[in-house]
Amino acid sequence: MEGSEQIKELVKQKYSEIALQDKETNQSSCCGSGCCSTEVYNIMSDDYSTLDGYNPDADLGLGCGLPTQFAKIKKGKTVIDLGSGAGNDCFIARNETGEDGRVIGIDFTPAMIEKARANAQKSGFANVEFRQGDIENIPVSANVADVIVSNCVLNLVPDKDKVFKEIFRVLKQGGHFSISDVVLIGNLPEALRNAAEMYAGCVAGAIQKDVYLELIQANDFSNITIQKEKPINIPDDILKNYLNEEELQNFKSGNTGIFSITVYAEKSKECGCGTGCCN
Fold first, then answer.
1. Less packed terminus of the chain by CB within 10 Å, N or C?
2. Domain housing 262
3. How do residues 195-204 score in pLDDT, each as one tens digit?
4. What is the model's pTM?
């Protein structure tokens, strides 16, 4: 892959295209005669339709978990969704926090922001807003959020350490996050690591599971808990676009695993000002 700015532009272009499509179009992409697999970014999505507050117009099938289901959101609280897309997690969070709460969605892609705002307007949600911004520099003041959620987004960001620092800054003392993301155990084949579609599909940008958890701990979060974990299996017809037969068999028989995890962590109520939590 290219440098950070090229990666960001790739993500913006791909998700701008997705924003202009409906869920059914996003979820089907024929990969040659006789087969029809989902795109990489849809293989790992979970079913939101049974959750209260679900808005089908806001569900583009892009997630890899259900972070709002695990986020312990209470009435009247402020929730921020990083990488809010068309607003799916924001609307479910709004159901949890109620009319007295506040929900802010942050997304990098103007087309997604436009779609999310239209969805919020149709529903008449005055306490849900969407801001365009880079989650490496979250456009929110410090100590604002009670809860932060994010669904399959941090793996798209080149500087994940900076995102966790920003999450720490934006959370109130005693606040917490629940984030669903893609992580690795073992190393991806070089052809997958370098594939733009695999990056946009949340796979090539994923890092090692232990490194991901260490980043959270290094940024002074406490009570770090994996709330859910599931393996991600990429179909052969997609892998064959990048790997020859020998590489495919080695990948499938090797020790590499791709996983979706939902991680919970807290910003402690008691911390030293040297960590920045008192700013």
1. C
2. 4-266
3. 767 766 678 7
4. 0.86
